[in-house]
Enoyl-CoA hydratase/isomerase family protein
Amino acid sequence: MDAPTMLQVTRHGDDGHVVEVALDRPASMNAVSTDFSREITATMTALSADEDVRAVVVTSTSPRAFCVGADLKERNGFSDAQMMDHRLVTRKAYRAVLDLPMPAVAAVEGFALGGGMEIALSCDLVVAGTEATVGLPEVGVGVVPGGGGTQLVTRRVGWSRAASMIFTGRRMTAKEAHRLGVLDELVEAGTARDRALEIAAQIAGNSPVAVRNAKRAMRLGMGVDLAAGLEIEDGAWRATAFSGDRKEGVAAFAEKRAPRWPGR
């Protein structure tokens, strides 16, 4: 018998270019276990290889929580060797979200704590309902954020705001997190998923070649100086300008019609 799935994957729209990945361990409020991490990695890896996917939305089936972070009940019985094995598995999961070549939008309702917040931060945009609670509380249980939190939140909000968030391990309301820049968009409670799907549909209407190359240039350019970043951008421009998408985009504009992107 196959193991029960912990993710619900749904394609949206007539063309299926928007894919929703819903975290689905409601009994544990989507706590990140070893098996859950493996499923996240496998799912995101498959989506990365699918050229028909233009945007991914990460949601939760539970209104109580996007994800509460690590499965501490599972970790409680680990030896040091098991803890290291678990680390290798979970790190791949967060990286699989971060490395999606197409834009990803997280829709946060309820709690997004620790590794759950890091799943959201690994997406390109984070939409949250006004009643959400977020934070990186890892220092309170004797570890540091290990799913990219120390790097991703610092890049979002700067050193001092990230330091306040991580060193205290405090929980924040969605309103405070939005004000600090941790969250990108704040919407009425219960509507984050709808808004994230709306954003994803707008993204999916654009050239998939252009969007993927823009994301790649932005990500690669973050770690280099301006001159090197401009060279990365030029490479992205060249890869896009001589694609079928550019030819179709110009033709559609001239003919005053919606483009039919070849996506190659």
About this structure: The CA atoms of residues 124 and 194 lie 17 Å apart.
